[in-house]
Amino acid sequence: MSQLSAIVITRNEAANIGACLDGLAFCDERIVVDCGSTDATVEIARRKGARVEFHEWRGFGPQKNYALSLATGNWVLSIDADERVTHGLAAAIKTAIGGDGADAWNFRDCQAFAAGRFAIRAGIPTTCCGCFGAEQPASTTSSSTSA
Prior knowledge:
This protein is an alpha/beta fold. The protein has a domain at 4-100: Spore Coat Polysaccharide Biosynthesis Protein SpsA, Chain A. It contains 4 helices and 7 strands, in the order E-H-E-H-E-H-E-H-E-E-E. The strands form 2 sheets. The chain has a 5-stranded parallel β-sheet, sandwiched between helices. A two-stranded antiparallel sheet has the order 5-7. Strand 1 (4-10), helix 1 (14-23) and strand 2 (29-34) form a beta-alpha-beta unit. It starts with a strand and ends in a 15-residue tail after the last strand.
């Protein structure tokens, strides 16, 4: 059976993290990687039942890769704190990952990156996304160094 992990990287996202995590209730695991919030982000995430870990900021790619390393699911949904998974998108994701025989899936209204396991990134609004198999590249990359 497919297991779905959700990963969110945060810094001072108290205004967003609660609703984000509420939309991820369908996931088997919700992980928040925070890089030093000074607001209530961490407390809200814990109250919502997410696993919260600290990781010093080293850029978007390294932060996402660290979050990915904590995920135990064979599918990973990477989402930003200010993004929301609608009921329709959640249903589409559950249907897609529950099927057999596919190496990739495309979803309308989301983006994807390959990160060593099946990965979906819900980014609304966008045009198209995909989920890629474990044989794809093992990490995301980014030259960005600020939060």
